[in-house]
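Bug report (template v2)

What were you trying to do?
Predict the complex of my protein with adenosine-5'-triphosphate.

What happened?
Run completed; filing so the output is reviewed.

Input:
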Amino acid sequence: RRGFYIGRFQPYHNGHQAVLEGIADEVDEIIIGVGSAQLSHDTQNPFTAGERVLMITRALETIDCPFYVIPIEDIRRNALWVSHVTSMSPPFEICYTSNPLVIQLFREANIRVKSPPMYQRESLSGTAIRQRILDGEPWEDYVPAPVVDVISEIEGVQRLRTIAETD
Ligand code: ATP
Ligand code: MG
């Protein structure tokens, strides 16, 4: 049985990691969809799909469950979105998500949905972590250690600060 989990992962953080560790106990294989794959280099979406694949793959290196990381571009047609996702993904039986729109779209397509709990949502959110990086506040404890390494390797902090500037 395969489970599907989708996010933008800008960046991948400890909340995502905690959810995936839970999913790993329930399924035989995990598919992680990297959403808005075409976006990068803007303040809400600083990292490329490839960089996010790297963060997720490295962070899950020690997980005891096979997984696939699949970039998925936006199609801007919600009525067709589930077909788009399933066309890009290995087959799966269950989708794990807490996003109300995603829940609705998968339910309408008769795909089983399970909503994992939120972990420390105040601090563990991509938005909060991007803001901490911009503000020069410590953020490294909110993401898995390999994600710190990837962001360092790609000079992600400097990128985020530069793209937040105005001319
Ligand atoms: P952003 O603030 O940029 O939207 P995010 O933290 O919401 O980032 P996403 O990539 O949008 O992260 O979310 C992917 C999935 O992870 C969503 O289903 C979201 O509900 C879930 N998620 C996000 N933060 C947490 C958390 N702290 N605990 C559990 N699940 C989370
Ligand atoms: Mg979000």
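What did the reviewer find?
The two ends are 51 Å apart (CA to CA). The longest strand covers residues 2-7.
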